[in-house]
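agent: user wants the full assembly modeled, not chains individually. Plan: 1) parse entity lines 2) check alphabet per entity 3) run joint structure prediction 4) return tokens. Steps 1-2 passed, two entities, 228 residues total. Proceeding.
--- entities ---
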Amino acid sequence: VIRLQSESFEPGGLLTAFCAGRSETGAVVSFTGLARGGQGDVHRLELEAYPGFTEAEIGRIAEAAQVRFALHDLMIVHRIGEIAPGEAIVFVATAATHRRAAFEAANHLMDYLKSRAPFWKKEHGADGARWIEPTAQDLVDAARWDG
Amino acid sequence: VARVLLFGRLHDIAGWRERVFDPAPASLSALRALLASEDPALGEALRAKGVQAAIDKVIVRGDAPIRAGAEVAFLAPMSGG
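--- prediction returned ---
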């Protein structure tokens, strides 16, 4: 399941639903990213996507991850639009036979989402607005899965 | 005609998100040249490191022809999660 949505979501509910009805899955790993307030400096985030393209690109990476880590299933929910500090911005869950594959796949998907998935993130704060672009560390994190 | 879309900081620099060009420029390089001649700041931003182009939602590296009815997008460096 890959979903972009402007509505807020509750990660606990997503995880419960993701775990339901599995008899052969030994491991589920989930990650929830929250929008940070930067000690009051960030009033809100604005997340832009390219409708159609963003879902397709994430789908391509998700399919590759499913094969690479022999996943039983995965779920990616990503917010778009306006996001307040403290709200969940991204949720990733992976299901596999054993924990290692589930951990690694979640790690890989998040590194990808951070710097290569087609999203554009703008921070609105006390000093105006600025676009957030991937840090050098984000690029290194994503590159370690290449090859 | 061709529809041109700008994402991320590119639409702030240009002051628009979407425009229709009629007739469609023949190629990506022709479109870049046209945009740069109208708006040098945008022209420079499009050449910046990490900016990618897509035609009909497929990333294109280097130059490529633009057919009539195409959707061309310029994508600033991406950041999610």
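agent: reporting back. The first strand of chain A starts at residue 2 and ends at 5. Chain A touches chain B at residues 33, 47-48, 50, 52-53, 56, 78, 89-90, 110, 113-121, 131-134, 138 (CB under 8 Å).
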